[in-house]
Amino acid sequence: MTVFKLLYIDSFRDSKTGKRVFYFRRPRGPRVRLPDDPNSREFREAYEIALEGSHVRGKVRASTRTPGTFDWLIEKYLESMSFARKAKSTQYASRLAIERYIRDDDLGHRRFCDLRRDHVEKMMTKRASTPGAANDLVKKIRSLMNFAIQNGWIDKDPTAGIEKFKAGEHHTWTEEEIAQFEEQWPVGTRERTAFALFLYTGQRLGDVCEMVWADIEQNAKVRVAQNKTKAKLTIPLHSELRAALSATPKEHVSILTTNFGRPFTDKGFGNWMADRIAMAGLPDRCVTHGLRKAASRRMAEAGCTTKEIMAITGHRTSRMVDLYTKDAEQEGMAISAMERLEKQTSNKKSQAERQNLEQNVKTLTKTNVF
Q1: Quick check: 164 and 204 in contact, CB under 8 A?
Q2: Which backbone phi and psi does 236 adopt, to 5 degrees?
Q3: 1 vs 129 pLDDT, higher one
């Protein structure tokens, strides 16, 4: 269990209840009780909070951050209604990313009203080798600035108009790569069940991770409540997914669990899937999110409309679906174009042969061959 590798963790078995309990404690510092399940998201969130020192004797410490600084702005933003509306998984990732960017660029003690466009561009330039991180930095800073504008603390957003780097896209799994994974992990394995849930529901990692047996309706449909968009979907079970689920023991509430029979955390599940993909001998470009794109590609190749694909994936707009299916559309249009070209070439060739034949007949007639 990875929890024992975390810093400042005390763990022992309660003599009265027989349960193992966990505490966070720095040297000579107070002890903070943590949730009982070290594999849960709640445990990791409580650990991160305790690690940041926001607890004193089990109570939340009053803010000592200077008003007008980035540290103060972040604190207010994390307490805001706009942040609370985000999905729990999004809140967790966003908070860690924002605090990391502010810490790496030593902005915490600086006044956010002094931030200029050239400051942000310099921060992006430092991350030019990782364009995705550079673009995410702008996104997070923009969220903070818009929050400040909404509260009347600044008048304009210094990130407005900044051009993002052209970031790479997740690779869409090919049919050959899909077959290679399925050959390594046959029906009946936990790996194949997870794979089928991704490929035949088109959902994100966090949503697949949280699926429970109660979500499966009469072995015919699966109910999904997406964390990111809050969309509620009912998706018919594909025969391949039905076969994978039928071969999976229903021993726990969650469909997918750790070796200890406990629900995965998002990060733990992502790492587990990455390991299984690598064990199948697939290249690094094959990541879990690429299966969501592969599901969309397959539906596009089957002739599904954009709205039909959105009904499965839960996308709110067609923009991302168009991005996911562009490879299928490109190949389909290329095939259609080549078929038209072949037909045109064949027609021209037939027409030329017919004209040659008619000319030969005229020539032979003139020479009295007939």
Answers
A1: no
A2: -60, 145
A3: 129
DSSP state of 172: P
Neighbours of 339 (CB within 10 A): 10
Q: Using CA atoms, how far apart are residues 269 and 227, in angstroms rounded to an integer?
A: 16
User: Residue 365's pLDDT band (boundaries 50, 70, 90)?
Assistant: low
Structure token digits, residue 248: 């999976």
Task: Look at residue 3 and tell me whether its pLDDT is greater than 70.
Answer: no
Give the CA diameter of the chain. 119
- Which phi and psi (to 5°) does residue 32 adopt? -120, 120
Three-class SS of residue 353? Answer: helix
Could you tell me if 252 and 261 are in contact, meaning their C-beta atoms sit under 8 angstroms apart?
yes
Domain 175-317 class in CATH = mainly alpha
pLDDT tens figures, 11-53 = 877 766 778 888 887 766 667 788 888 887 777 777 777 776 5
Our CA dihedral for 285, 291, 295, 298, rounded to 10 degrees, sits at 30
**Quick check: pTM over 0.70?**
no
* Cα distances (angstroms) measured from residue 211 to each of 80, 122, 201, 206, 246: 29, 42, 11, 9, 15
Give the span between the Cα atoms of 235 and 44, in whole angstroms: 31
- pLDDT single digits (tens) 218-239: 888 999 988 888 889 999 999 9
Residues in Cβ contact with 52 at an 8 Å cutoff, skipping those fewer than 6 apart: none
CATH classification code of 63-165: 1.10.150.130
Looking at residue 334, what is its pLDDT? 65
CA distances 365 to 55, 172, 359, 360, 362, Å, are: 107, 64, 10, 9, 5
**283 CB-side CA count, 13 A:** 9
- Domain spans of the chain? 1-38+49-62, 63-165, 175-317
pLDDT at 364: 59
List, as one string, the DSSP characters of 56-89.
Answer: ETTEEPPP-PPTTBHHHHHHHHHTSHHHHTS-HH
